[in-house]
Write a structure and sequence with these properties.
This protein is mainly α. It has helices at about 5-35, 55-65, 75-85, 90-95, 100-110, 125-130, 135-145, 155-180, 190-195, 200-210, 220-245, 250-255, 270-280, 295, 305-310, 315-330.
Length: about 325
Amino acid sequence: KLLLPAVKRVLSQIHEIERSKRIINGLTRRLEELSIPTTQFFEEEKPAGKKTDMLDEVVFVFKRGEIELPAIPSLSLKFQELMNRGADLRQIGELLKQDMALSSKLISVSNSAFYRGLVESKNVANAISRLGLKNTKRYVDAICTRSLYTTKNKRFLSLLQRLWEHSLACAYASQILTDVMDIEIENDAFTMGLLHDIGRLLLLQIIADLQLKKKIGETIDNAELSNTVDMNHGKFGAALLENWEFSESIMRVAAFHDNLNAADSINNDLLVVHFSNLMVKSMGFYPTEQGDNQLQELDLADIESARILKLDASLIEGLKTRVSEFMKELRILFI
């Protein structure tokens, strides 16, 4: 009996090691399929004296298993498992009460101007009842996912904060767009928006770690960083989501939300996130330290996804107003 806890810890550690190996192998295979130029860096050792660029080094550490990949927060997984089993509000509440910090934030969300009722929510049960199960799941995912946006490299903290706010804004924009237009989609719009840039997060964390380990120099060229992440985050995001066992449709959103023309097929899921991504960028919720001034002058009603979804200028302005109100009211609760 005294040895049992220690044995469980060891077994858990072995399980995590094996899981990490499977994810890395899967990511490597997926990146090869998606035509990331990796072949020359699948050797056991890098060529002596050869300077490698940022992407080369990222791919090399993938193959060597020298990175800690982000994992889906366990509470989100348990919540989804309960929903899949048809759990009631009481069972969901019992799960969420295990995390006091999350419970506190969830209660605060339910008492925000968006959801405030005649009586203040004072516990998790009140909060779930007011928000409803679907919104509760969305906000739990948002609160849990926020914990992924971190790094030991202080140089990248502000960048990850901007990326987080962009992802949260895109999540809400995607949700209200589908609600207002009654668009039929395969996956939850909030979830798709929240995860569409997960590849950008993954690349930034790897590069931040490489810099701390002095594998890519003490200083990073901002132009190279921006170009590397912009050009490759879709492929890395799709690869990571595949190993997190998300649907093919959400993987397609991660891969092609910046480039509809590159997609082998286009559905409403991709169109919704493509538009929401551009709209929140035009509002200033840009995922990088330097925004794009051209986006502020972009005619959002004229972009391809807006035309296909039949969005007009008046509706778009209404969406922007609601997103602004949401971010002003709620983003502080998710920090």
